[in-house]
Amino acid sequence: MKEQYQLKIGIMSAPTVEFTLVGKYRLGDEVCCGRQSVRAKLGHIYWNGRAWQELVFVPTEENCTFVLHGVTIGVGFHWQRCESQVFSGGLRLIVERTTITGLPTANDNITAINQIGVEDYLTSVISSEMSATSSPELLKVHAIISRSWTMNKVAEENMSGCSLFSNADTYHPVANKGDQHYIYRRIVWYERESHRNFDFCSDDHCQRYQGLTRVSTAEANVRKAIQQTWGKVLTDNEGRICDTRFYKCCGGRTELFSTAWADRDYSYLVSVEDSPTAGGQSFCNVNDKRILAEVLNGYDLETTDFYQWQVRYSVGELSAVVKEKTGVNLGNILELKPLKRGQSGRIYEMEIVGTSGSLVVGKELEIRRVLSRSHLYSSAFDVEKEGDEFVLNGKGWGHGVGLCQIGAAVMADKGYSCEQILSHYFPNTMISNLCNS
Question: Judging by beta carbons within 10 Å of its beta carbon (0-12, 13-18, 19+), is residue 21 exposed, middle or buried?
Fold first, then answer.
């Protein structure tokens, strides 16, 4: 068996965790199997009538799996739901006073951590981010970029701390425009957190990792893609592993890194037109149900207006949403003013003008969050005012930086190779081999 770099993946965090050991697992000298339940109390894990500091279940055979019940996926997004998920590898249970996203909680939670090799981890990632029935070239593409992103983060020197913010994590007044009228400002971005007790979480916040449940639909295809790309990553012209970002649909053009995260850009994360020729139809402008069913998982298929979309709010509705999401009362919203746009048209700084104040907000994900009870599909939208309604006419689904998954699926269907797809979305890169994956 090939050697793999070992990862710790945080799957869920809750006061009580239900799980099933399928096969024989070892806990110290004890062998365990079947349905189990643990709960957190006073800084300990209570299981089988005893208090534990931690529990580590190690599989005794390769075909052992465990099921975690009640895992929440898509946290905070419009597809959020709860499901049971199956995993290979080991299971570690610890007590934390924080959730896996780093937010404080009033009570202790048990965090379930999957201990697994990077290539086995990627087997699940590429069939969680897409469908396991995707074309072979697309599966290879995603294996390489997901491995690159993972190992890029592993290689970072600073693997501690919280989300990176450009300023204080509050909406605060920065100017007074007259009696009772303030300008508030919050420019913030949400980077992957460096988690304290594990390497990555399992949701969109890091990479989707939903175990073996979705691999089973086309397991041979997925495992073949991993084998064919084993240890391969994208590197830049200085030999560094690339920070390979991806999302669902660019809406016609990809975006710069700096519109979504820190104020820096990379030679391989540039804005490219998502079409074979200048001015041609975008790869991701597709409604072919066959292609979409191959690349999108079931809950993603529920979103059909990913290329062009529209959201309407009355003044009262929008005012309520902004107040709910920010905690700042701007009165009735009068205007939405895009201040800065990226090359794809995504807004990364916007002023929301109300009767009692104004709020300057960014970057792109914070704009999407503030203007929706979940999240807008993207920040690539124009604003129209029709009477008492604000109309947002948008395009694309996601931050737009790096690989457009739907566009890449269409390219693969048209016969483009893995290498051609990667060079389209990540120019100025090459495929390299890790010495030890």
Answer: buried
